[in-house]
Amino acid sequence: MAQTPAPSGSNQGGLPYALAAYGIWGFVPLFFKLLSSVPPVEVLAQRIIWSLPLCFVIMLFRKQIGDYLTALKDWRTLRLLIASALLIAVNWLVYIFSIFTDHVLAASLGYYLNPLVNVMLGMIFLGERLSRLQLVAVVIAGVGVAILLAGALDTLWISLTLAFSFGIYGLIRKVVPVGSLPGLAVETTVLLIPSLAVSAFYLWAGDGRGFGSDGSISLLLMAGGIVTAVPLLLFATAARRMSYAALGFVQYLAPTVQFLLGLFVFGEPLKPVQLACFLLIWVSIAVFSFDMLRKIRADRVVAA
């Protein structure tokens, strides 16, 4: 049965799923660095191709094939999932590109911004109210982005594309009336034919860098299906069980790990304007986190 979207502000055990999803995403640059010799578009296509069989295996185990077929037949649901599929494809491609071109810090900034984007989307589309402190946090983050406009415009598009594409993706997945796994399977089905076409082109081109060129590279590309499907499934489950603002709060785990990887493992330089932006984003996160914790404590007192 497809789950009914959780009411805004509800929390039905989504926290463990969110922690697992964002933990995996935090360390995933280490995986994709191993594939940096492969064209980003081919990596994206292979991720999609190998995600679908895994989705079907899990759906068979959980007896959700019927939900998958129902979603394909319902045009309203399918239309929403086509939109979410395109958004996540853009997000994946830009993210892979950022890793391959040594812009992990820019990607990290995008995912730091994403929780604040979630807050705004939750307010606009889900009726979630923003407190004064949350509004202050959003304004501070906006100042940080404005600083990047002045001094790091070459990578700002990476950060903003990742923040907004994933924010809108999560919003759609929260409201679409289909379970997390069947929804992910429909998304990968929508993207399958273009992905097969791209993979066939690279096989035909035979540049010696992608799938089929080397056993280890081929296995890594196949493993990309697991790296793709598992955290997305966890995220989709969390998105339906938590308020959108609370989900954004947990997301700080992934960009923090990515920031540390970019700075200390990949040795990316940190520009002064980037440092200033990160500092403002961290202040914004501190303000937002303080407000969230205060609200959680107040809710507990009321419940008691």
Would you mind describing this structure in some detail?
With 304 residues, the protein is mostly helical. The protein has one domain (15-131, 154-271). 81% of the residues lie in helices and 0% in strands. It contains twelve helices and no strands. Helix 4 (75-100) packs antiparallel against helix 7 and helix 7 (153-175) crosses helix 9 (215-241). The longest helix is centred in the last third of the chain and has 32 residues, at 272-303. It is globular and about 55 Å long. The two termini are 34 Å apart.
Give me the secondary-structure topology.
Blueprint: H1 15-33, H2 40-62, H3 65-73, H4 75-100, H5 104-125, H6 132-151, H7 153-175, H8 180-205, H9 215-241, H10 244-250, H11 253-265, H12 272-303
Brief description of this entry?
By secondary structure, the chain is an all-alpha fold.
- Strand segment tally: 0
Radius of gyration computed on alpha carbons: 19 Å
In the residues, how many domains can be counted? 1
Instruction: Please describe the biggest sheet, giving its number of strands, its sense, and whether it closes into a barrel.
Output: none
Envelope shape: globular
Which structural traits does this protein have?
globular, disordered N terminus, 12 helices, mainly alpha, 0% strand
